[in-house]
TrEMBL record:
InterPro entries: ABATE, ABATE_dom_sf, Znf_CGNR. It comes from the Bacteria. It comes from Embleya hyalina. This is Zinc finger CGNR domain-containing protein. Residues 135-177 form the Zinc finger CGNR domain. PANTHER family: BLL6575 PROTEIN. SUPFAM superfamilies: Jann2411-like (SSF160904).
Length: 188
């Protein structure tokens, strides 16, 4: 079982918010199933409290990525350790949907927000411990502030997606081109 793969759930949660664009994809209980479904069964009842809890976790996970990207390793680890203490994993051996026995990191009795937070926090902690803090990034293409995991062989990823990489490259090209163009004489 590759626990570091669960770090993608932390990325998904953080990226439900685009502060620079004024977008938030986690506004009501109706938004929670799309976030949680790939990780665990949706609880029969998702409340406004679950949304508020997930938004709080999202803010703290963003702080982990932001601190990591800024080279503030101790801050990132302290924030992540706080999340791990607040949302511990509750492993449970289970078999469902005709699949063989396997582990779930958050038991079914754990609420929507708590279970997702536990899984995301544990995955991010394993990712950090296994691959290093420099693998956590914040997209450098403005105004995007999505977070990502740098899984490249040479640790060179700087953007959350190919789209942002292309946008950043085009912006750099245009800036270089403008710098080479002769400036009009403003004194005439």
């Amino acid at each position: 079982m590759d626990l570091s793969a669960y770090a993608e759930h932390a990325v998904r949660l953080v990226n439900t918010e685009q502060p620079a664009r004024g977008e938030d994809l986690l506004r009501s209980p109706d938004d929670v199933p799309a976030l949680i479904a790939p990780v665990r069964r949706i609880p029969s009842r998702v409340t406004d409290g679950d949304v508020a809890r997930l938004r709080s976790v999202r803010t703290r996970l963003r702080a982990v990525f932001t601190a990591a990207a800024a080279g503030r390793e101790a801050d990132a680890v302290a924030t992540l350790n706080g999340l791990l203490a607040e949302f511990p994993v509750h492993p449970r051996l289970t078999g469902h949907d005709a699949s063989p026995w396997h582990l779930h990191l958050a038991g079914d009795a754990v609420g929507a927000a708590e279970g997702f937070a536990a899984i995301a926090g544990m995955g991010l902690a394993v990712q950090l411990a296994t691959h290093g803090i420099d693998r956590l990034g914040v997209c450098r293409a403005l105004p995007c502030r999505n977070v990502f995991l740098d899984l490249s062989a040479n640790r060179s990823r700087r953007h959350c997606s190919d789209r942002c990489t292309s946008r950043a490259n085009v912006a750099l090209y245009r800036a270089r081109r403008r710098a080479r163009e002769p400036q009009p004489d403003r004194h005439t």
